Amino acid sequence: MVTAKPGWIGGLAEWTEGDTAYLSVAFTWKLNDAYQRAVYYRALGYKVRAGGPGIFTRKHFLADVAEIGGDVPDAVSRHNPAATIASRGCPVGCWFCIVPKMEGKEFTLLPEFPVRPILCDNNLSGLPADYQNFIIERYLGEGVPLLDANSGFEPRTFDEDCFVRWSRINKGPWRFAYDDHHERCYVERVMRMLRDVSPRRKRVYVLIGNEPVAACMERIKEVIAWGGEPHVQPYMKLNALERTPFPRFDWNKQLLRDVARWANSPQIWRKTSFDRYRRSVKTAERYDEQQGLFL
Ligand code: SF4
Questions:
Q1: How many domains does the chain have?
Q2: What does the pLDDT average to over 71-94?
Q3: How far apart are the first and last CA of the chain?
Q4: Which ligand 1 atom is at minimum distance from the Cα of 99?
Q5: pLDDT at 281 > cutoff 90
Q6: Residues 135 and 194 in one domain
Q7: Pick from 26, 28, 67, 73: nearest CA to 50
Q8: Which of 178-182, 196-200, 220-224, 232-236 has the lowest mean pLDDT?
Q9: Do 98 and 234 fall into the same domain?
């Protein structure tokens, strides 16, 4: 039986097949590293092919050292051998998300997907119900545990049927996003549905910096009030070459980082409100690449 390991490679996967070196770039802030690796492989005599979400908004960045694009099946397994994808695309169309731009606003189903413990589909609850059931039956049929529905569920479409359906196999956290105030009633409904699930197993990803400070802080407080633990993600531009938050409205970079550190540490927000929280120079900020969070 395959088991999930903490095996994410960190956003830049590379491998060779025959005379070709492949670079799969998950984040734009890995592009400079990818460029150096492309130069290295070319010096060794390889042809270089590069792709992935990190390339999409800056297609010309590697154009002089690599052939860009084209489909490489199962590239996600090069980022984590326990990961798989059963569909691409997402019809929701959030303005800050690269998925609809890159993979389309209609789902592409991949029924031949290899069954592995980490499932990285963009929006499992938005998939047609019969395809959700198909995925679940494949996990049950192959005896593979679903240890992490990595990109999670979308609150608008996560209803009781969906909860019951995925409860059959989901051994990991229930992941959701609370991206803006329009989602309030949906997220609250989901949190009511999950009231008997432990706080650690309901992860609500709260995007901050995409609305004014007061509106973002309100969403964080609501998640806590509804019995969850917020996982705060500062807004970043889709083409950012550095892993730094991008402030809009009345935010600044430091405030984005401070709120993220406060909200992503239950031992801090349980003891101290943000108004009373003082960033300590002794506690170095840490970025968790797997979760995409500043801690
Ligand atoms: S629901 Fe999720 S995957 Fe779909 S567009 Fe919005 S952020 Fe992207």
A1: 2
A2: 96
A3: 33
A4: 8
A5: no
A6: yes
A7: 67
A8: 196-200
A9: yes
Residue 281: CB atoms within 10 Å: 6
For atom 1 of ligand 1, the residue with the nearest CA is 92
Residue 6 included in any domain: no
**Residue 210 beta carbon below 6 angstroms from any ligand 1 atom:** no
122 lines ligand 1 (CB under 6 A): yes
pTM, full prediction: 0.91
**pLDDT given for residue 291 in this prediction:** 55
Whose tokens are 């092919």? That residue is 49
Distance 21 CA to ligand 1 centre (A): 31
- If asked whether residues 127 and 214 sit together in one domain, one would say yes
pLDDT tens-digit map of 211-236: 999 999 999 999 999 999 999 999 99
Q: Is 38 in the pocket of ligand 1 (CB under 6 A)?
A: no
Q: In what helix (H) or strand (E) does residue 25 lie, and over which residues does it extend?
A: strand 20-25
Mutate to test the pocket of ligand 1, among 56, 106, 121, 122 (most ligand atoms within 8 A of CB): 122
Q: Does ligand 1 have an atom closer than 6 angstroms to the CB of 111?
A: no
Same structural domain, 261 and 202: yes
- pLDDT at position 294 is 61
